[in-house]
Amino acid sequence: MQKHVALDRASAPVSRFTRLRELLQRPDLAFLMEAHSGLSAKIVEEAGFEGIWASGLSMSAALGVRDNNELSWTQVLDMLEYMSDASSLPILVDGDTGYGNFNNFRRFVAKLCDRGIAGVCIEDKIFPKTNSFLGENQPLADIDEFCGKIKAGKDTQSHPDFQIVARVEALIAGRGLEEALKRAHAYADAGADAIVIHSKKSTADEIIEFCREFGDRAPVILIPTKYYRTPTEKLREAGASMIIWANHNLRASIRAMRDTCAALQEHQTLLEVESDVAPLGDVFSLAGSQELEEAEKRYLSATAPRRAIVLAATRGEELGDLTLDRPKCMLPVRGTSLLGRQVEALTRHGVADIRVVVGYKADAVEAPGISLVENAEYQTSGEAQSLSLALGEGDTIVSYGDILYRPFFLAMLEDREEDIVLAVDPRVSGRSGRDAVACTLPFSDDLDPDAETPLLKGFVGEGGDGEWVGLMRASAAGAARLRRTLDEMAGEGSLAGADLGAVLTRMAAAGERIGVVYVTGFWRNVNDLMDLAQARDAV
Questions:
Q1: Distance between alpha carbon 316 and the CA centroid of its chain, in Å?
Q2: pTM confidence score
């Protein structure tokens, strides 16, 4: 009978309460990472941490208030609920001094258990609390009063594995090791599940001595914010059960926001910062947009996923021996192939379906998450036929396989209202080549949002207003009209030898409004060895 019970428990999902208890009690050192919002909680889980420290300092600072209990416990509960919803990790919350006496604390514990918060840490100081790193000789709570608070919390918790952690501030207050040990033992006797011993010295000597003297009376948690130079292995050898990285997500975000604001204030253009910030697709992904898309497919009418087509069927003879055993889309640029860099940009933008049209050395083409479409006639056909083989329904990005571009180009293409939009570099106007284009308006530095926007007149072979960089976007409607044009050309017998310039010129002449987004730099194509060298220098 006992064997069946054990199997049932093993097969049941382990609660967050139990997972936190197991982290504290296991022989291996555990690590909690600070979070202060639903977004940061998701990032902590994404990074691979096993638990979250919901920092009182960080939550307060995120809302622009001081870490002196200016944030009410009900506001903390609201923030914790978002964090708990956003992540599956167990959360240990910084409960300051318990928000009052034993009665306030036991109500807080009850509400935490209701929301699935796995544990709370309270410190033995006076309400309202003062941050441990501010001032000297901070007053401490009476030991018996604090023990009563711990007992009240343990009597109130509704889950047996809810963890109450007692934070000893004697070293912070300058009371010394003896007082710290006295308090730690008393709190363990009162039912505390673990002890945090805190210090603001730059070395860990007094922390290590405490661990040695306290032994294995209860799990010991360390917060090495000030003694960060101490090797983690030394803290592990001292017998610590858990380490908390207490406020570093918040501090990292402050520096990043300041750098971004300073750059925008100085340069007054997004070009200086766009490549250094997370793409919008990353924000949408962290917010769960993909789950909503899947739900929409399930509960609403079906829609085709966003896709991209990379045209990579040719060898690239100008690159000589480098393309003997692979097409040029697989040439490495700083350790990642041209195709791999495109796939990274597209994936970050939220593209789920990436189709690569291959021909020469097709078996050498590989990258995460792609599907291959073979153009068996790649030696005698052009880009138009390659596109025709892969083009389906829905919003589609089309790219040459031999280009590098900044990911923000994709967002720029989507900002235009036309159903087909091309990225054009005006710096190379006047150059002869198959991708030279004429537009209805030349490039201008005019930032007026109401100014008229340029459209494609056609591919002109030489001269014109710029060069198409080899990147375009078609909405679902635009992709459908592109499909019709390709089919018409196939019926006429003109598709096989056509490049994309011929297709787009034909559509523009027929009245299709094809938008042009001017991009000045931040891209390269790779046609020869000089191009490849410049691409490697630019990355």
A1: 35
A2: 0.58
